[in-house]
Structure formats: C-alpha cells, structure tokens
Amino acid sequence: MAKTEQRVALVTGSAQGIGAAIAEELAADGMKVVVADVNAAGAQAVADRIDGVAKTLDVSDPERVAAVVGEIVDEFGRIDVLVNNAALVPLTPWADITFEEWRKVMSVNLDGIYLVTHAVTEVMGKAGYGRIVNIASNTFVAGTPDCAHYVATKGASIGLVRGLAGELGKLGITINAVAPGIIASEGVLSGPHAAGFDYVVPMQAINRRGVPADVAPAVAFLASEKAEWITGQTLVVDAGHTRN
Ligand SMILES: NC(=O)c1ccc[n+]([C@@H]2O[C@H](COP(=O)([O-])OP(=O)(O)OC[C@H]3O[C@@H](n4cnc5c(N)ncnc54)[C@H](O)[C@@H]3O)[C@@H](O)[C@H]2O)c1
User: What is the span of the domain harbouring residue 51?
Assistant: First the structure.
C-alpha cells in the first residue's frame, strides 16, 4: 500500500555521472529518489542535494538487492520508476579480456539489471504502474572497439527491453532504453575513455562534449506518466553521432 503520494524512483549507480544527473532530474520532476550505489558517501551526498534517500547497493549482490527493494517498500509502499544505470565501463582489448573480467562485467552490467528489475517489477506489477529505463550505450550501434564485453552487455540490455516489454505491458509497466554517446561523466573523465572525445565530437551533429545533464531529460520523459504509449524502444541520445 502506498505510504506517500509522491512517485518513488530507484536510480542505480547514481552517486556520480549520468546516474546523479538522472536522480536530480527526477527529483526536479517531483519524485522521491532513492540514490543507490556501491559508493555510500557519494550516494549520500547526492541524496542530500535532492532531498532523496541514499542506499548502499551492489546491484550484482542478490541479497542486497532484495534487502534494498524491501526497505524502499517498507518506507514508501511503492516504487514507480526504476533506472538501471549502474555499470562497469572498462576499456580492454579483446585479447586481454580474461574470463574473470568478462564475468565481472556481465555480473554488474547484466545480472545487476536482472536482479533489480526482477525485484522491482513484482512491486510495480501489484500497483499496476511502472516505468523502467535501462541506460544502454550508442557503442552498441557504433561497434566501439576495445570494450567488446561492455558492448555485449549494452546490447543485452536493449534485448531485454524488447523481450520483456510484452509481459510488462500487461501489468501497466513500460520498459525502454536510452543509449547515450560519450559523456563527460566522472568515470569517463578519470580514465582512458576521455581520449574518445577527440574523434567522436567531430562526428556528432552537435560539436561539443556531452555532459550528464544532456542525457537526463530523455530518461525523465520515458520515466514520466506522459510516456505511457512508448515501450520496448531504444532512444539514442548522442548529439547525432550515430544516425539509424
Ligand atoms: N559516460 C559515457 O560516455 C557513457 C556513454 C554511454 C553509456 N553510458 C552508461 O551510462 C551509465 C553511467 O555511466 P557514467 O559514465 O555516468 O559512469 P560513472 O563511472 O561515472 O558512474 C557509474 C556509477 O555506478 C556505480 N557503480 C559501479 N558498479 C556498481 C554496482 N555494482 N552497483 C551499484 N553501483 C555501481 C559507481 O560507483 C558510479 O557511481 C552506465 O550504464 C554507462 O554504461 C555512459
């Protein structure tokens, strides 16, 4: 039973970068946002800024996912929006991807989506309403090299959106993907990905660096009541880098 009139949104991996911008956008739209991240201090800082709630969460940990979803339901009685944003973004040539690294990326980027979505759709299904947005990547369209495991998980997240939309539609839940291009998040700026701006920005139709706030409005629209008639889709948000 809902204990608040406010819509409640769970955004994974939202202590920084695109996830934090999404959390801010959803809060600005009037939602109570649960900022969930392995980085507890970062999650708390974002939650404090937006009058949200911080949860320490590793999306690949089944027990922790069940506990956090249970806590949200106990506290608010509802979860209206889920944004599956948490991901590892490694840059590793194929020859150097060990099976251990492969499994690690699958477990966070793909098993994590399964675990959180499976738990949350049970709650949304009972309420007869839900909005789920997977943060995919335009690397799936562009075929970006040196991150084949990552691209495989992003393709799988789009596959899940397509495969699950029909079952969830019967429950009043929509599920879509947003596929950003390269974005100046903390993660990208602190690693070798940052070099990618030099060759991607000239290929974009809009020739400047993307920032997390460029992605958040598209997610917020798909997470809104207004997007009721859109499901099973992928929206590419990359300043026209890829055009399909
Ligand atoms: N930045 C880009 O260029 C870009 C482009 C396309 C897609 N994306 C996607 O956008 C999303 C966010 O990317 P970003 O660049 O903001 O990343 P980022 O590295 O800046 O932030 C990722 C956040 O996820 C958290 N996280 C990592 N593993 C986690 C786990 N197991 N459980 C919970 N939280 C975890 C991190 O602590 C961090 O706060 C990812 O899904 C990424 O694949 C990013």
Answer: 8-181+211-237
